[in-house]
């Protein structure tokens, strides 16, 4: 099998896997089962969780190169990032439509008055911007500004975890796990940065 | 008195009905589980098994929920906050067997003339149970309408002859971290503890429940006995009580200890006092419907005519 076939198969496989939560959600809604007593909350949780999981997986791809020298996974980064943004968008739609019923006055007061909503909205908007600037044409047009823009994904991930920590009566415990995963994902990057900074003096 | 349409589980003996459903569910679980690699939502678990609950009879039913539809029993018993049995709403039903209710006793003490340790049957006269249909409003902005079985709390408490020093009543949930694995989490201080001012406790709407939907309480709803305070947020209605104490000072309460700026001692339902992290103006009635709209939350959960006088002269935005 040549490299190109392998890459294509990898992409198709990852696309199929990343679509499973969406298909699962659609199936749950249409079959009217397995959504629990508060289906809207369930859908919000599922979409938010998967946005975060996929964001974490996306962020794990680069450290794999740093740690093991692997490169094959880097070609999946864009697709996984797009899926993360997609589930974040579904999450926002669930909230604005199903939960708040497009009550714009309430959406406004929530956005302004509740830091947890504000920070979540900024994170979702950030992912949307990154998704829109991910096609090759956008990469070319942005040139040198592309990379600094897309480095904001680390900030977005931090904001997403803060959003989880603040969300509910008991958000703390989930958020602790997410925060630890995030720290684990960010550590290799700090190691690389530290190395770059110290090498000229060596 | 409310009558509901006859459902199939009233015709089929419950054990048979449950078994049938369990087989179906197991089959569905296998199919679904292999497809998406996750377990069946506990929300789909059926009503509690006949092995753990038994039928109760009441002297009569009173509707305190304005004729609203009852929240289906399946949802009342599968969508719960009971952190001793797990943090997710479906966990308590799933982990119901963590709660051991055999030989349950309740210790009553403090500022009263007749303290003691009592079996549930000695505290609550099971031949004089009332059914009361109350709205239940959770602080998380969802709500239910539940037919409880029990006795007025005040009548029960008066038997212990509280003294003039009994300004408040404190209630504790059972502490059993060996079995109640949720108590190994540090999310709250254990045992879960709650309290009421004595006049709140003696109010005719305050209720000590031992059952719902015509049966004894399942574990996830606070077996074998729990408080029901319809005008307060749900967490005031402490579950699985083992201790009742009459005290002079305002007692500590679990959620207040955990986050004092978010959860006050009174915790009266109040649409105009927001939780710092979400609005309390509206609520979602739990109905399992993906398109159900929120409804307006009522002051004191709709019981203002009965209870507002308890709080005359108080600033409810400060004493929240």
Instruction: Please give the alpha-carbon distance between the first and last residues of chain B.
Output: 34 Å
Total number of β-strand segments of chain A? 0
Percent of residues in helices of chain A comes to over 70%
Number of domains of chain B: 1
Mean pLDDT of chain A: 88
Give helix and strand order of chain A, one letter per element, not per position. Answer: HHHHHHHHH
The largest contact between protein chains, plus residue counts on each side, is:
A-B, 32 and 37 residues
Q: What distance separates the N and C termini of chain A?
A: 44 Å
Low-confidence residue ranges of chain B: 1-45
The CATH class of chain B is identified as: Alpha Beta
- SSE string of chain B, helices as H and strands as E: HHEHHEEHEEHEEHEEEEHEEH
Oligomeric state of the chains present here = heterodimer
Biggest sheet architecture of chain B? 8 strands, mixed
Apparent shape of chain B: globular
The amount of beta strand of chain A, in percent, is under 5%
- Uncertain runs of chain A are none
Q: Tell me the CATH architecture of chain B.
A: Alpha-Beta Complex
Radius of gyration of chain A, in Å, reads 19 Å
